[in-house]
Design brief:
heterodimer; A: mainly alpha; 15 helices; 74% helix; globular; B: mainly alpha
């Protein structure tokens, strides 16, 4: 019995060390953001500020157009999520439940495109959108993300589990194919859809390389871009830089804490697309 | 045109360094992340108290934006006022230059990336662990196996498929590393943290040598493609 207790204690101790390692950087972040610059650059160092300072937060709010950045990122992410949820589930449905010549071949082609990482398509994609004159617009951020092979794959795998009897019964009742999709398949796919929604939203939100090369106007920047350039500008003013970081992560962290279960479930389901 | 770009790659020392650095990053990153996340998952799988709390906290770094984390760690790595050196001073370890040190820059980037990703892969391993039927454990316990033996002889072998998927996924996504380098080091110091995608960016969008950038991208594609096909081959067994 005692051995069990000892083991349990050691295990929890190890876990606690992990907790500290995971959280301490964030703690340091908050401390720095609210520490007056005189204290940040003082020797010897101390972690907790002696005087609580709002100067950095105020600086960030007056210099960084956070509202616009948030708006841009949100618009792009939302449109992409809606598009993916609708089109990829529709496509997945087609591949899972409808029969047509060449179905297998088409699916394999779609899967094959999954093997081409975005970074490899970077230059041609850029030149393509340049020709279309869409550079430096929100559309150039949205359009490449309107559909994806991985999402189609995911939905197809999930929809395959819908019992064929349900679909056949609906057909006998005279239901059109789209109605079958809309009223039977979709409601049954809710867990996968919600995981997909979260995953797509986060993926779009954290997109960095593409916006960096396609967006040049300040007011079209996404939050990630804005934060990166802001940090660049305030390179030596760490208090302000950290305040910027803090203000940019609070909403997502809040969102995560509220929807923890869905997030974690979503990762287990879809997570293997990429880190 | 044509093959000139590819020949340029072989003679360009920076791009060659980028290829090497990326492999260095991938090898260490994948190894460390896989081991740590596996251990964390194995431990969490055994406890019943505070499980959700641990999961959420460990996963948290994974959902915070990479740019934000890069900036935060850049500050943590600050040689004079940063957290890391501050903590090391308590252990009487001398302050290091981290991101400014040619030898330590890449390990610093790796450590930060590991920190961010462990929770993510831990969740994936946990999902795999949950798929192992209880009966296996029960049968082993009846046979009197110690928990260490159970882990070695039952859990780990059954985790092989998931572990393989984790390793290949982590490998492929590690080859695409970019943001950390852009924010923290811009490839320096002295090209110590140059990576493939960063070179694609620099050559294509700072120097506007699009053809050259495409050639580099193609090399990257060949690498990733072989890894993907390797994964398919292994999974099929």
């Amino acid at each position: 019995m005692k051995k069990r207790l000892m083991r349990g204690l050691i295990i929890h101790l190890l876990m606690m060390i992990g907790i500290v390692v995971s959280l301490f950087p964030f703690f340091w972040l908050v401390m720095t953001a609210f520490k007056p610059s005189t204290e940040i650059f003082s020797y010897p160092m101390h972690i907790i500020p002696k005087k609580f300072a709002l100067e950095h937060i105020k600086e960030v709010l007056s210099v960084m157009p956070l509202g616009i950045y948030y708006l841009n990122s949100s618009v792009v992410a939302s449109v992409r999520v809606c598009s993916i949820l609708f089109f990829c589930s529709l496509t997945g449905f087609v591949f899972a439940k409808l029969r047509f010549p060449g179905r297998e071949i088409f699916f394999i082609i779609i899967l094959a495109t999954m093997m081409i990482p975005f970074q490899v398509r970077l230059v041609p994609l850029y030149l393509f959108f340049n020709k279309l004159g869409l550079l430096d617009t929100l559309r150039v951020l949205i359009i490449p993300g309107l559909m994806g092979p991985f999402e189609v794959f995911l939905m197809r795998q999930s929809i395959e589990f819908v019992p064929n009897e349900l679909i056949d019964a609906a057909r006998i009742d005279g239901s059109s194919t789209f109605r079958i999709f809309w009223q039977i398949v979709l409601p049954l796919s809710k867990p996968t859809l919600s995981a997909l929604a979260i995953f797509t939203f986060m993926w779009s939100w954290s997109d960095f390389l593409w916006p960096i090369i396609t967006i040049t106007s300040v007011n079209k920047r996404t939050l990630e871009m804005g934060l990166a350039f802001f940090g660049n500008q305030y390179y030596t003013e760490y208090g302000t830089m950290m305040a910027g970081v803090l203000l940019s992560i609070i909403p997502i962290v809040g969102f995560f804490l509220v929807m923890q279960k869905q997030f974690i479930r979503g990762v287990a389901l879809t997570g293997l697309k990429g880190v | 045109m044509g093959l000139d770009n590819y020949l340029m790659i072989f003679s360009d020392a920076v791009v060659r360094k980028a290829l090497l650095n990326t492999v260095y990053y991938v090898v260490f990153m994948v190894f460390i992340v896989t081991v740590l996340s596996l251990i964390a998952a194995l431990i969490i799988n055994r406890i019943t108290l505070l499980v959700s709390f641990y999961k959420v906290v460990y996963f948290l770094p994974a959902i915070v934006s990479l740019v934000a984390i890069s900036q935060l760690w850049m500050w943590m790595y600050n040689p004079r006022y940063g957290l890391i050196n501050h903590i090391l001073s308590f252990f009487k370890i001398p302050a290091q230059s981290w991101l400014l040190d040619e030898k330590l820059a890449m390990p610093s980037v790796i450590i930060m990336s590991v920190w961010k990703s462990v929770g993510f892969f831990m969740i994936i391993f946990l999902a795999g662990l949950k798929n192992i039927p209880e009966e296996y454990y029960e049968a082993a316990k009846i046979d009197g196996a110690s928990s260490f033996q159970i882990t070695r002889k039952i859990t780990l072998p059954l985790l092989k498929p998931i572990a393989l998927v984790v390793i290949v996924t982590a490998t492929i996504s590690s080859f695409l590393v970019f943001t950390q380098v852009f924010v923290m080091t811009q490839g320096g110091p002295i090209d110590a943290t140059q990576v493939i995608v960063y070179q694609i960016y620099v050559q294509g969008f700072l120097y506007f040598k699009m053809g050259y950038a495409s050639a580099i991208a193609y090399v990257l594609f060949m690498i990733v493609l072989s890894l993907t096909l390797l994964q398919l081959r292994i999974l099929r067994e």
